[in-house]
Structure formats: C-alpha cells, structure tokens
Amino acid sequence: MNTIFSLSLKSAAREPFLLFWSILVPIGGTLVLGFLVGTSDYAINITTGMMAMGILFYAFTTTVFSLLGQRRRGVYQLLKVTPMPLSRYIISVSGAWTLVSLICAMLVLMVGGIFFHLDLALASVLKMGTVCVLGAMGYVFFSFFVSGLFQTEAQTSIATNLIAMPLLLGSDAFYSLEAAPDWIKTVILLNPFQWLLNGLRSGFNSNNRDWAISAITLLIFLGIALFLAVRSFKSSDY
Amino acid sequence: MNLIEGKKLVKNFKNNPVIQGIDFEIRQGEILALVGPNGVGKSTTIAMLLGILPPDEGTISYWRSDYKEHIGTQLQSTPFFEGYSARENLKLFAALYHINLNDVEIEKKLTDCHLEEAGKTPAVKLSIGQQKRLAIGVTTVHRPELVVLDEPTAGLDPRSRYEIKEMINDLAKNNQTVLFSSHDMEEVEKLANRLIFMNNGKIIDQGSPAELIDKHQVENLELLYLKFTEKN
User: Fold this and answer.
1) Most CB contacts within 10 A, which of A5, A223, A231, B226?
2) In this complex, which of A1, A73, A89 lies closest to B77 when CB atoms are compared?
C-alpha cells in the first residue's frame, strides 16, 4: 500500500497539468488580483479562492483524466485478478492525490501569507488544512464517478468543464455575490466549492461555528461522492 | 492435477450467446493454447476463468483458495499505469501482489525482459514489442504458478515474436503453467503441449498438436485451422 501511495505521489508530481493549473495559475492569480485590488479583505478572499480553485482543478479535473486513462487501458480490470483489494488501491491513490492537493493549497496560502502579510496562526492553518483534505477527497471520489460515465477524452473534457465552471463561477471565489438575487444565493448553498471556500475563510478568521458547519457539509459531500464512486466501480464497465 | 476447471460455462452479452456451455481445464505444467478466430469467445473465456467476468451459468473451481496470489495475467490491452516508467510499473505490479521489489531485483527483471536500457522510459512510450516483453515481466513478477497471456504476440515483428516465445519457453522450464491465446498456428505448434480450438462460443476440439493433426488427417495446424473455420 505504501509503494502504491508513494508511486502515485511521484507520478502526480510529474504531471504538467498540476504544475500549471494547481500551482502556477493559483499563485499567479493570487498575486496579480491581490495587488490589483489592494485591500486586505480581498487579499484573504483571493488567496482562499485560488487555494480552492487549485484543489478543484487537481482533485477533480486532473484526476478525472488520469482515471479515464487507467480505465480505458484496463487497469481496473487487471486489478480484479490481483490479490490487492480494489478498495485498498483506491484508498492509496486517493490518499496520494489528496496530499498533492493539500500541498498545492498550502503553497498558495504560503505565498499569499508572505506577500499580503496575512496573520496565519497555527490553529487557523490546521483548520484550513482540514477543509482542504475534506474538499479534495470529495472531489477525488467524485472524479471516480464522473470518469466512469464517459468513454472518450472529448466527452470527459466537456463534462468536466460543465461541472467545474458552474461550481467556480457560482461561488464568491473571485467576486462578491452579496448583490445576487435570492434564488442564486439559495442555489449556492448546494455548491460544494462554496462550502470549501467558506471553510477556508472561517478557518482563517477563527470563526469556529461557520468552520464546523462547512466541514460537516464537506463531509456530507464526501460521503455522497464516495457512494457514487463505489456504485460506478460495481458496474461491470469500470 | 487441474489448476482451473470450468464446467458448462455460459456467457451472454445483451442476449447474444458468446460462450455456449463449454468445459475447460488447465492442467499443471502444461503450455495450453486457446485458438480460434477473432470474436469466438477466447478473451471472454479467459476473463471468466480469471474472475473478471462472472459466467451466466456453470461453475469454475481453482486448485487453491488463494489462487489470485498465484496467477499472473497479461490482458490483451497491456494495461500499464500511465505516467509511470517501466521500472515503476514493475514495482507497482509487484506491490499489487504484496511484494516489495528492491533495485537489484528490478534490474534483474528488466534484464530478463531485455529492457535494460528502457527502465526509465514511461511504459506507455515503449515500442509494442518492448511493451509486450514488459507485460510478461510484470505478469510474472510474483513467480506465479499459472501465467495467462491473452494474444502475447499479436501485432509484433518476427524478432519480437521470437523473444516472446523464448520468454514463454523459459516459463515452462521454470515449471510454470502457461495458458495463451493466439491466431498464429506455427507458434502454437512450436509452443503448446495442448490446444483447445474454439469457434462460435463452443469448443470444437482439443488435444496435443500431434494428436489433432493425426485425428483430422491434415499436414499441420494451419490447415486444421482452415478446416475448422471453413464457411459452409
């Protein structure tokens, strides 16, 4: 299990998509938008927004394509004939991908902290790290489900954009939604990406009540995503 | 002793009968070839014997309860892990069998597969011949008692086919049982102790190459193949 975890980690670190979308873009976006707007409130908003975006791009978008590639090559069929339980393999791989997501998010937080002089108490960082792990695991499990639905990269590309973009744009990651109509504010309550943001921001602000609500909501999302992932693995096509 | 025994196996796909009540056994120490045209159910039979596909009817019994630990499988698509080098694939496949390969063991395995220079190359970027050799390498990384190879030489040039055949012979010399599927009757004649001929989801005949040639009064297995697949 350790071998699978460490090899998955090594392979993930070589992924160019990761470097660009989950490290360079979030860090670049944090610095450019943070300095452009120039207020301390916006600095934490954009830092957390970019942390969450990096997690979404890696733990969901990148992993969907990795899983699709593995499924199409028959890796999961092959696993059925080895003594390694599929669940252990999935836990090892998901664990590595979650750790990569956490490291990316922490890199963005570190850069935001240094350039915008954010007050990062250890307790806040731990709380933010916890919601990063919950959110990333939820997205990884969700990507197992989504990758099982499609056969080609083109179909998967359309689907991931149709899923990721509304999550991203239907949140207050980059702009305020205070003036949005009430129905939009209601719909946003169903957006797991917004709950990841809420968790990161309340964790930073040490608002324990909001942080706990966000963490519980992300835990529910994780449970639903895990259920969907298990269902798709039970289908003979996977 | 039979390692695997399938009785009255039936498999349907969307109400189309793909396997129609076959009996099948793999005997310890033999090199068994599963022969027949494309789409007659060879890969489906292998998938059922390995537990990838459950049969709709019939039973399959194994020589030991922990049989998965002792079977090495190369499926038709050679599913290497994308983003991993040849070395890493060997290490990863070994881990699937709870084996932790050290660097010396990996180097030896690469040498056995004639892939000394290609260890750091991503497995999916190797040539087809190299991929097939690596596939047998990862299939046998845990020294299985039974090695199952689904069309191991398909699409290979003569040199690569020769190297794969040598690898299969080496497995037999190490007292490992081999089941392979193939269309190449010359290869089957040279390698197999016994062959099972399939057509339209049924077993048409089985026996040693010499027995079958003698029984059907043909000069070689290629002519037997043509006879069995003759259209009415």
Assistant:
1) A5
2) A73
The torsion of the CA quartet A147, A148, A150, A154, rounded to 10 degrees, works out to 20
B63 touches chain A (CB under 8 A): no
Our CA-based measurement puts residue B44 at a distance from the nearest CA of chain A, in whole angstroms, of: 13
| Tokens encoding A165 | 């973009």
B2-13 and B57-62 strand pairing: antiparallel
Query: Cα–Cα distance between A8 and B100 in angstroms, integer?
Result: 15
* SS3 of residue A25 by DSSP: helix
| Residue B15 pLDDT grade (very low, low, confident, very high; cuts 50, 70, 90) | confident
Report yes or no: A201 and A118 within 8 Å, Cβ to Cβ. no
Using a CB-CB cut-off of 8 Å, the residues of chain A touching B125 are none
Query: Where does chain A show beta strands of DSSP type E?
Result: none
**CA–CA separation, A73 vs B197, rounded Å?**
28
pLDDT score recorded for residue A21: 86
φ/ψ bin of B33: left (φ > 0), alpha (ψ from -120 to 50), beta (otherwise): beta
Question: Which is it for strands B2-13 and B16-27: parallel, antiparallel or unpaired?
Answer: antiparallel
The beta-carbon neighbor of A82 closest among B68, B83, B88 is B68
Q: What is the CA radius of gyration of chain A?
A: 18
How far is Cα A137 from Cα A131, in angstroms, rounded to an integer? 10
Nearest-Cα distance to chain B for A2, in Å, is: 9
Residue-wise pLDDT for A104-131, tens only, equals 999 999 999 999 999 999 999 999 999 9
- CB contacts of B83 in chain A (<8 Å) are 11, 14-15, 66
Q: Does the distance separating the beta carbons of B69 and A236 come in below 8 Å?
A: no
CATH number of B186's domain: 3.40.50.300
Q: Which of A11, A78, A84 sits opposite B75 (nearest CB)?
A: A78
Distance from CA of A8 to the nearest CA of B (A): 9
This complex has an ipTM of: 0.81
Domain count for chain B: 1
Residue B180: which domain range? 2-228
Helices (H), A116-191: 122-147, 153-169, 182-188
> Does A235 reach chain B within 8 Å, measured CB to CB?
no
Three-state DSSP class for A4? helix
CB contact B96 to A (< 8 Å):
yes
Strands B194-199 and B57-62: unpaired
What count of other Cβ atoms lies within 10 Å of the Cβ of residue A168?
18
Q: Which residues contact B166 (CB under 8 A, 6 or more apart)?
A: none
Q: Which of B177, B148, B128, B175 is nearest to B48 (CA)?
A: B148
